Amino acid sequence: MGETRLSRFLDEIYQRLLAAYGHQHWWPANGSFEVMVGAILTQSAAWSNVNKAIGNLKKAGALSPQAIRSLPLAELALIIRPCGYFNAKAVKLKALADWFGSHGDNIESLHDADIESLRRELLAVHGVGQETADSILLYAVGKPVFVIDAYTRRIIGRLGLLPEKESYGVYQRLFTANLEADVHLYNEYHALLVKLAKDACRKKPLCLQCCLSDMCCYNKNNNIGV
DNA sequence: TACCAGGAGAAAA
DNA sequence: TTTTCTCATGGT
Question: Are residues A133 and A151 in the same domain?
Fold first, then answer.
């Protein structure tokens, strides 16, 4: 990756966010399988509610791939009820546990797999879309994959780098083509974007908090296409 | 009361 | 192929 104005700009964003918020210590979970479960449960759900559902799974002794596979669907749904969409997510968790089982319930077995084939496998699992697959690859498996979510779109869109409705792949390439493929960097960068978006004021479209407020409309000011 | 939260799959157009 | 609908609890 060459040093470009865009890569310097993305690095500047990262440095400012890190200075403003510090390390985020993501993903907030104990172990890789808990990360995978959280990635499903957090779909269109507030993390506080996901925490309740994960707490319920722990209390029920059901936070393992074996337990999720063996629990009756209705019982699993009841356990994860606080995070919403519980019937749909119970089906998704079972599909994920089945997939993990096909790898021997062993995260180590995934470490040597190449990213693209592993991503294709995950996308074929019911309930796993691009964001969920990439969250699992980055935060559970430890692959250098940049996660794009609604928060990332909102911030990058408001900075003027890309239209908010641009495709997932284009958003992902914005980061991967301009940053070193580094697991720690991708981990922290995404977490910091989420932190900023949660702090930002939704009622003011260009209010991105003080640390980035002067960087808005980068594309217009610098005439750089991405 | 209404809106939103660390999406994705299925159905309809 | 693209858009719309559905899934649903809990906090603000």
Answer: no
